[in-house]
Specification:
Layout (H helix, E strand, L loop, with lengths): L1 H24 L7 H18 L21 E3 L8 E3 L2 H8 L4 E7 L2 E8 L2 E7 L5 E3 L2 H4 L14 E9 L2 H9 L11 H9 L4 H5 L4 E11 L12 H10 L7 E4 L4 H11 L7 E8 L2 H6 L10 E4 L5 E13 L5 E12 L2 E7 L3 H7 L6 E7 L3 E7 L19 E6 L2 E6 L5 H12 L11 H9 L16 H5 L6 H14 L1 E2 L1 H7 L7 H10 L4 H6 L2 H5 L6 H11 L2 H11 L3 E2 L14 E4 L9 H10 L3 E3 L6 E5 L8 H9 L2 E3 L1 H9 L1
Helix pairs in contact: 1-2, 12-13, 16-17
Length: 657
């Protein structure tokens, strides 16, 4: 029995160490927080029981070495992790007769900021707790961080670099390829802070939430007196212009009640968090307690106990995407989680299926990651007999399992797969692309099945096949004429629309505009560009640049694009030089009267340097809604945040005239 326990310790140490390396050093996740915490607790219990702790165990090591791409620097004092609990009562016991501060445990990348003479001189990431990466230039682009402060001495603080859910949604909304979207705000924040190009960081709206003051000395080197109070330090930092983590004073008598109050705020909390932190307010007392090999004794983390429910896995659906990825989705008996009914959960990839050892009819446990996204937590039966499709569920072609970002994914090998083709055509005609009204997915499917369209350019030849279209079910003279009219209207277009419509991997509507603007709407200049020039464009990184370059040098893509270009009249966009809306953010909702579509109004705003997003935040200048008195969710959000709600006509008068 002892041998099996030692073997399990070795397995868990290796597995959790790899998960930590992926999370801290490579900005990716190979398991959920739920699974990591469960395995971590199992390892800690085994180590305590056996007295054996392997070198490199995550219970004694802190993070991993910083990557080599940025300068390294040793921290003046080690940055330790916190001990954790999921018991609310344990926090009350831990606090005893002392007063504490309960705050969010923000989920991003920890950084150390140093100020001297009132100026930011250094920012270093947490790294492995002993040594971090110097990212000072990037820190100077953080949206809420003061680069100068009214304090002449030396100040060192710790904070969490985060990307809000609002900004995360905005960034992902500009990426139309589902496979290229970022997975979560934490990974995006970590990758953004550690960019080699600070311009990329600036575009990501990173912000810092201060959670600890390490050092504050005056110009003569004397330490600032805060009477050993952490709350006093927080108030001091607020006065200097820092955003400080939200906190509440607590005692053993009310800490459980305060945790419940924080819990209610999760749904509307725009800053990602993965729990709470309880600290002694008396820093002298906290320091007197010392530390363990890994944890300080003056603070402890509280992790939410995810609400789980047991159910039965009934089916796994396999959906072929435009890129050929075949994505598995679990279908199970409906259960209630966090107040809603749940019966489906994405499994993401083949690796997760293998790790969970899934089989139809298995008893599984499900939960909502961050109380939002349904996930499978555990498989009790582990029958491990789920059949991975050997053929594409749409076209029947052979499937292959490939490696992608250290995970195994299933792909269709047929370039002519109807699912790929159909979804690429659906993408081609959508509003932000060629904007062809009347070409629904069902209509496109009919036209593909009858062989009337095989490539994008064939859409513009449909008027030559009017008689054949009229023979199709659902088409009459009027609907056919309307469709042909919409197609003819879309011939007058712009290069950004065409680039987006072509479906270049990772290139969304916003990226397409940046690329086209860089080449002054000259498609031939784009063809001649190399990867280095492409990657230097704002909003285009090395991966997207490589994808664009590959497309522009792929014979099949070139043939299809050239055939399409013969059918179009690409209008060069005028640059009026008017940037009166630069730096302003707007949200458009509801029906419009003066503009044919929201896209047209969006283009008018962007032409003057403004931005249009899909979510109302504190940064929104105004919400454009012709029904200013409606009780829609966006109107409610705007009123709650003090954002002006304005009609389309008034907006045009004030901002576009």
């Amino acid at each position: 029995m002892e041998d099996s326990k030692i073997k399990r310790i070795d397995e868990l140490t290796a597995l959790l160490s790899e998960a930590s390396r992926a999370y801290y050093a490579e900005d990716r996740e190979i398991m959920s927080n739920f699974e990591y915490d469960k395995l971590y607790d199992e390892l800690a219990a085994l180590e305590k029981e056996t007295g054996i702790v392997r070198a490199g165990s995550p219970t004694v090591s802190v993070g991993y070495e910083a990557v080599d791409s940025l300068p390294k620097e040793k921290h003046a004092s080690p940055m330790l992790s916190l001990g954790k609990t999921k018991s609310r009562e344990e926090l009350a016991e831990w606090l005893g007769d002392k007063e504490g501060l309960l705050s969010w445990k923000e989920d991003g990348l920890t950084v150390v900021l140093t100020y001297k003479g009132g100026e930011l001189i250094k920012c270093v990431t947490r790294g492995n707790g002993e040594t971090g990466e110097v990212v000072t230039a990037n820190a100077k682009t953080f949206v809420n961080l003061p680069v100068k402060i009214p304090y002449e001495g030396e100040l060192v603080i710790r904070g969490e670099a985060v990307i809000t859910y609002s900004d995360f949604e905005r960034i992902n909304s500009e990426i139309d390829d589902a496979d290229a979207k970022y997975k979560n705000p934490r990974n995006l924040a970590s990758g953004s802070v550690r960019q080699l190009d600070s311009a990329v960081t600036a575009a990501r709206s990173v912000r810092v939430i201060a959670f600890a003051l390490v050092l504050a000395t005056d110009a003569d080197g004397n330490e600032h007196d805060f009477a050993h109070s952490m709350a006093a330090e927080f108030e001091f930092l607020k006065k200097l212009g820092f955003t400080v983590v939200e906190y509440e004073r607590v005692t053993a008598a009310n800490v459980v009640e305060k945790i419940a109050e924080f819990e209610k705020k999760i749904v509307n909390n725009d800053i990602p968090s993965d729990g709470l932190v309880l600290s002694y307010d008396d820093k002298a007392y906290a320091a007197s307690l010392g530390r363990t090999a890994k944890f300080p004794r003056g603070a402890i983390a509280f992790k939410w106990s995810d609400e789980t429910a047991d159910t039965i896995l009934r089916e796994v659906e396999w959906n072929t995407s435009r890129t050929g990825l075949i994505n598995p989705v679990a279908v199970f008996d409906s259960v209630e989680l966090e107040g809603t009914s749940v019966s489906r959960a994405s499994i993401h990839n083949i690796s997760i299926i293998k790790e969970l050892k899934l089989g139809l009819g298995d008893r599984i446990s499900v939960y909502k990651a961050n109380m939002i996204i349904p996930q499978i937590a555990e498989n009790y039966d582990k029958s491990d007999d789920l059949m991975i499709p050997e053929c594409c569920p749409v076209c029947g072609a052979k499937t292959v399992i490939e490696k992608a970002a250290d995970s195994e994914v299933l792909k269709c090998t047929n370039d002519e797969c109807p699912a790929k083709k159909l979804k690429s055509f659906v993408h081609f005609v959508e509003r932000d692309a060629m904007n062809i009204e009347g070409l629904s997915e069902m209509t496109l499917d009919k036209l593909i099945q009858t062989g009337l369209i095989k490539d994008f350019a064939d859409i513009y030849r449909l008027k030559e096949n009017r008689e054949q279209i009229l023979k199709l079910e659902g088409f009459k003279e009027k609907s056919c004429d309307n469709l042909i009219e919409a197609i003819e209207k879309s011939r007058e277009t712009t290069l950004p629309r065409v680039l987006y419509a072509l479906g270049i991997p990772g290139v969304g509507a916003a990226n397409a505009k940046m690329v086209a603007a860089h080449f002054d709407d000259d498609i031939n200049a784009l063809r001649k560009a190399d990867s280095d020039e492409l990657s230097a464009i704002d909003g285009v990184g090395p991966v997207m640049a490589a994808d664009i370059y590959e497309c522009m040098h792929n014979d099949a893509f070139i043939f299809s694009m050239d055939d399409l270009l013969k059918q179009l009249n690409i209008n060069k966009r005028e640059n009026s030089g008017d940037t009166s809306l630069a730096g302003l953010v707007f949200v458009v909702t509801g029906s419009l009267n003066m503009y044919a579509s929201r896209s047209e109004l969006k283009e008018a705003i962007e032409a003057k340097g403004g931005k249009v997003t899909g979510k109302v935040t504190a940064k929104t200048k105004c919400l454009i809604n012709n029904d200013v008195n409606s009780t829609s969710s966006k109107n409610k959000e705007a009123k709650a945040l003090g954002v002006e709600i304005i009609s389309e006509e008034d907006f045009v008068k004030q901002y576009l005239s």
